[in-house]
Protein 1
Amino acid sequence: MGRIKSQTLWSSAYTYAGAILGFVITAILFPRFLTGSEIGVLSLLVSYSMIFAQLGTLGFTSATVRYFPYFRSEKHHNGFLSMLLITGVTGAILVTVLFFILLPYLRSSNLENSPLFAHFLLLIVPLAVFQLFFFLFDVYCSALFDSTIGTLLKEFVQRVFILISLLMYLLGAVQFEGFTFLYVASICAVTIILIMYLTVRGQFVLKPPDLSYSRPYLKGMAGVSFFGLLNGFSNFASLRIDAIMVNEFFDTSAVGIYTTTFYFGILVALPSRALYKIASPMIAEALKTSDFRALRDIYTKSCMTQFITACFLFMGLWINIDNIFLLLPDEFKAGKYVILYIGLANVIKMGSGVSEGLIAYSKWYKVITWFMLAFLGATVLSNLALIPLMGIDGAALASLIAVSMYSLLRFWFVRIKFHLQPYSLKYLWVVFALILSLGICSVMPTLPNMPFDLAIRSALGAGVFVPVIYFSKASQEINDMILNFTTRIFRKNQ
């Protein structure tokens, strides 16, 4: 747990630094200097490319986490990197072929309602290929117990490049078309940097796979990769299909409003990214050695700490919802309840802890695939039903419904197969703290100065939420963090 704690702190620091930068870019600069349609184009390029990229990994990310412990060695890890590269190149060829098969349909379906997106369709290919290799090399770094570099590059460095590209656009150095190419290049660049990092570390050494060593594992790796492919595709498709379906029903302008407000909702889930990436190889190691005490410890603590964190962040988000929309042009107010539904979906998601990892890296790994396919099916069907009725709010509500169903399935399976049940009556104290803070802040009058209102309202919300959590002793880990923080504050003031 010490290693998890250390890397979680660094990953969380990079994640939140990136979140602040992402907030400036996505919530302030993009809406002010780009049209909703232009924002929608950028969002759709990323959405399509990530789905293609996940297909291109051929599920080898799951095989890496599960089987790398068996290949680990002092120098070349028995040629594991070469296996990873062969998989990546094969996947890149396959998704490129698939894209050009689908290109006539993609172009014809977007020419009328989304002509700007149709103009940039070919950029999906380099985006998909570079992101494909980033996924593979990032999970390789995590398997080497170095998960912070991927977080730093993806969450922070990539956004720095995007900000520089945007500043060039604002200064008139490039037009929107040039900015779009720079935007794509910014996403691709972090993959190159990650390869350079591995090279400097001496971990990008190509050695032919040791077939005599790897042969006993190949069948298992193929099976894990197959189900990992289905699982990963379902996961990414579920996360990105809403923007694509909004575009199908409406246009890129609606996509721009949806994805901009969607961004606020996913801020609630930021801590889970760092924890899940770091905990995954630990879970794999614990399963390998049948260390069920470690599994119980990781699962139980992850559920409570993430739930408390998610509720705190959601509280801060929703009590300041009116202040948020003062930062955005009027057209984005249509996304108010997108923030609500996506925020709640992420509270539920974080409250389920690392249950997905427990299943995905166990002998029952195939089950998570069927759960993910059910998740994707529920997402698509609920989107089809709710988007025509509720517009972009319907897409967000569909996500909430699908996430709730998926989280319940994971909890049920872990309870049955692992005999682990992390929840207790202490969770009611967390819900009480959330409701109480929301209720008290809702009756606070709006102050005329927005920054002052935001600061006072946030302080009030935290002043209600944090003491309830601390004195209820819902989480020893959270209490330790609160105590350490207050101790440092008092020391500075002495």
Protein 2
Amino acid sequence: MTMNQETKGGLTKNQSLVFETLSSARAPLSAYTILDKLRDRGFRAPLQVYRALDKLMEGGAVHRLESLNAFVACNHPDCQMRKTIAFTICDTCGQVEEINDEVLSQHLETIAKRNEFQPQKLTVELRGLCMDCR
């Protein structure tokens, strides 16, 4: 994701460094991998990474992949406006693609309402093999 100047201007130094690290990564990164990559930039403790990640997730710039306990930079500029986020995750090469599908979002909302449940956030992770690894 390319952050607009207004969003980028509102980030702290640590948040910017974490976001840039995730944006340039070819695969999702754990918080400890981010810490290792940023040690020479002044990061010393996991808490520094987790604080930055929390703020970036709050703003929709970064997503946490629950099944991998790892993080990816957002690919869609309007994520903070969406309640449903979906990903495909290749179990062989680690490639992650963010999916923006309004039909899926509406279907999940319908299921939740039918079950008298009000979700705050919906995250779907599809695990399998990408086209290159099949």
Protein 3
Amino acid sequence: MLSYEITQQDHCRRLESYLRTLMPAAPPGYARKLIKNGAARLNGAPAAADTLLALCDTVTLKESAVTTALLVHSRPTLDILYEDSLILIVNKPPGLPMHRTAECEDNLVDAGQAYILHSRFIVTRQAEQHP
């Protein structure tokens, strides 16, 4: 079992959203599937996808080759709250500009575009490998 302790950064976040942050390259319904099948548990017990996480809660995942391959070792630069094929909802950190400025600093739009392009590249590569 893989265990993760909820920190202040993820306090009051939905369980499904937290799992998507751990596995950003996973298909959109994968986190919900883990929860529904009992492979993802909250404090050792089954939980609903919309359960809110609290500080010091423990999320455990049943270890499998697929889940392990989808996990990231560091948090993604974007704090993704929801994603499907049409919408990407991000929790914008304070101080990060929304759009590019004359100073060419980091901004949310460029980070979002880079994320989308990277995830589409991964999906395309996986489709090419498994026709």
